[in-house]
Write a structure and sequence with these properties.
The complex is a heterodimer of chains A (about 140) and B (about 100).
Chain A (H helix, E strand, L loop, with lengths): L1 E7 L5 H9 L9 H21 L7 E10 L2 E9 L26 H9 L2 E7 L2 E9 L6
Antiparallel strand pairs in A: 1-2, 2-3, 3-5, 4-5
Helix pairs in contact in A: 1-2, 2-3
Chain B lengths: L1 E7 L2 E10 L1 H14 L5 E12 L1 H17 L1 E5 L3 H9 L2 H4 L2 E2 L1
Parallel strand pairs in B: 2-3, 3-4, 4-5
Antiparallel strand pairs in B: 1-2
The chains are: A alpha+beta (about 140), B alpha/beta (about 100).
């Protein structure tokens, strides 16, 4: 089953985006922890697009949400027409640095990569297309 | 996110409840700027903090850097889910987390 939400890429729309993404989670029997992780992934990606995709103007994001059953999974696709940006090319942050040397930033994409089972990026027809898949393991803790 | 503030001398306790998402973190950041003036001991009580995103981690980091100069900071009663985000990012080594 697939549904789509189109919103303006603005941080103010974060709660609407989170509500849309998490709507089918009850049916997937995901754990509280998985819900938290899915909310986190959604926020990091959406906020990145809202912050950087359209530096000179406003633009929109289309989020496609698909639920799969075998195995149970949630698949999210974010599409925007902003500046090309492949998060998979981003260098992972150095987690061993001491506090004073820690740069403020770069953690969001890292968290997403840690949490999702699959992350794919394409630049297609003038759009950034980022697809994330999170397998739901109701027995996991 | 809701913040309940308790100031005793130069000790400030902030009880955080709800979600420290990007919108809340920007707001919290601005409030901290002023609230930390003259504070030597900062306690963030996270008992009812249900959620944190990377923007919230940045706010913690910024507060920790500032408190290192003027005193100290601890996080208390961090729940499992929040703790996991802290450990995934190595923040559990940068921040003081107490039970």
């Amino acid at each position: 089953m697939a549904d789509e939400l189109r919103v303006e890429a603005a941080v103010e729309n974060l709660s609407a985006v989170t509500a849309f993404v998490t709507a089918p989670l009850a049916v997937l029997h995901c754990t509280q922890k998985e819900r938290f992780q899915i909310e986190l992934v959604t926020e990091e990606i959406f906020v990145n697009i809202a912050s950087y995709a359209y530096p000179a103007s406003s633009g929109s994001v289309v989020i496609e949400r698909r639920t799969m059953t075998d195995p149970p999974a949630l698949c999210l696709t974010f599409r925007d027409s902003g500046i090309p940006y492949d998060p998979l090319q981003q260098e992972p942050p150095d987690l061993t640095l001491e506090l004073k040397d820690r740069p403020i930033g770069g953690l969001g994409v890292f968290l997403v990569r840690e949490i999702v089972d699959e992350m794919r990026y394409e630049y297609r027809d003038g759009q950034n297309v980022l697809t994330l898949t999170k397998i739901i393991r109701p027995d996991s803790t | 996110m809701e913040i309940i503030k308790e100031l005793a001398g130069t000790s400030l306790t902030l009880k955080l409840s709800g979600r420290l998402d990007t919108v809340a973190a920007a707001d919290f950041d601005r409030q901290l700027d002023e609230m930390l003036n003259g504070v030597e001991a900062l306690t963030l009580d996270c008992t009812d903090l249900a959620y944190v995103a990377s923007s919230g981690l940045r706010t913690f980091l910024k507060a920790q850097k500032r408190m290192n100069k003027q005193g100290h900071m601890v996080l208390r009663h961090v729940n499992e889910a929040v703790k996991e985000v802290l450990s995934m990012t190595g923040f559990d080594d940068l921040l003081t987390i107490e039970k």
